[in-house]
TrEMBL record:
PANTHER family xref list: CONSERVED TRANSMEMBRANE PROTEIN-RELATED
Membrane spanning residue stretches: 70-89, 95-112, 119-139, 151-168, 180-202, 214-235, 247-267
Disordered, as annotated region: 1-32
The protein's name in its UniProt record: YccA/Bax inhibitor family protein
Keyword entries, A-Z: Membrane, Transmembrane, Transmembrane helix
Species per Swiss-Prot/TrEMBL record: Cellulomonas cellasea
Domain of life: Bacteria
Extent of Polar residues compositional bias: 1-10
């Protein structure tokens, strides 16, 4: 998988892979907990009929992950991020560097934790809000008013499109899809590192010598495409977690993973629109 939040999780992974990695003794047929051959328990017909007639327990009642859990957690974190970003944009845009460093550290910590920490995930949303708010102010000042609202609307549109395509079944996460995305991400990472190194040689280029003009627009479109594919993989990981009945607490991990991809998508769209407007 592309997103390290889901990629490093035993919860949202392929159950067949987890089965090969774990040991243990399977429960044999007829060996249900609490029922032994020597201590058989009996139940009268009325109680048995009442049990069969009772409604099935929902996933919420059994403490399992639901889509509502993920939506609520994601919405809360996104609202927190937006509020902090707006405050930073208006009052302290110069703190974006601090937000970037703290967000990077907290992102790595949360990505590799086996159990989600709501406090650390919320702290990550705050740090990313500081970073996004400050960098948005910089872009808006450099390339004119209206750039940030355009990037926000574009992010919402791409997210909605990816979700519709995934829910419709027209785009499915197959091994070929996964391999293509991983290759694309590795290639884009290498390109970005090379562009960063060359930017020290050509400091006059704002986005680096490889991110300007027509080439910069093409690379930006590729990056947006990769971020969109990552969103689809995130949706697939969440769907698998819900179907497998993982504990509800992992809704925080799912929400965190979505926030990571959404922030990346927004930044790529912001840079792409700035390149287009700058040219």
């Amino acid at each position: 998988m592309s997103n390290p939040v889901f990629n490093n999780s035993d919860i949202f992974g392929d159950p067949r892979k987890r089965g090969r990695q774990r040991g243990g003794t399977a429960v044999q047929p007829g060996q249900a907990a609490g029922y032994g051959a020597a201590g058989a328990q009996t139940i009268d017909a009325a109680s048995l009929d009442q049990m069969y007639g009772a409604p099935s327990a929902t996933t919420a009642q059994t403490g399992r992950l639901t889509y509502d859990d993920v939506i609520v957690k994601t919405g809360g974190l996104l609202a927190l991020l937006v509020v902090v970003a707006a405050a930073t944009y208006a009052f302290a845009p110069g703190l974006w560097v601090v937000g970037m460093i703290v967000g990077l550290v907290l992102g790595l910590v949360n990505a590799f934790k086996r159990n989600p920490s709501p406090v650390l995930i919320a702290a990550y949303a705050v740090a990313e809000g500081v970073f996004v708010g400050g960098i948005s102010k910089f872009y808006e000042s450099a390339f004119g008013a209206g750039l940030v609202p355009q990037a926000v609307l574009a992010t919402v549109a791409v997210f909605a499109s990816a979700l519709v395509l995934f829910r419709s079944g027209k785009v499915r996460v197959t091994p070929k899809f996964t391999r293509f995305l991983i290759i694309g991400l590795v290639g884009y990472l290498g390109f970005s590192v090379l562009n960063l190194v060359l930017s020290f040689v050509f400091p006059s280029e704002m986005f680096g010598p490889l991110r300007g003009g027509v080439l910069g627009i093409i690379v930006g479109l590729v990056a947006v495409g990769l971020a969109s594919m990552s969103l689809i993989m995130d949706f697939d990981s969440i769907k698998r977690g819900v179907e497998q009945g993982v504990p509800a607490k992992f809704a925080w991990s799912a929400a965190f993973g979505l926030i990571v991809t959404l922030v990346w998508l927004y930044l790529e769209l912001l840079r792409l629109l700035a390149i287009i407007r700058g040219d």
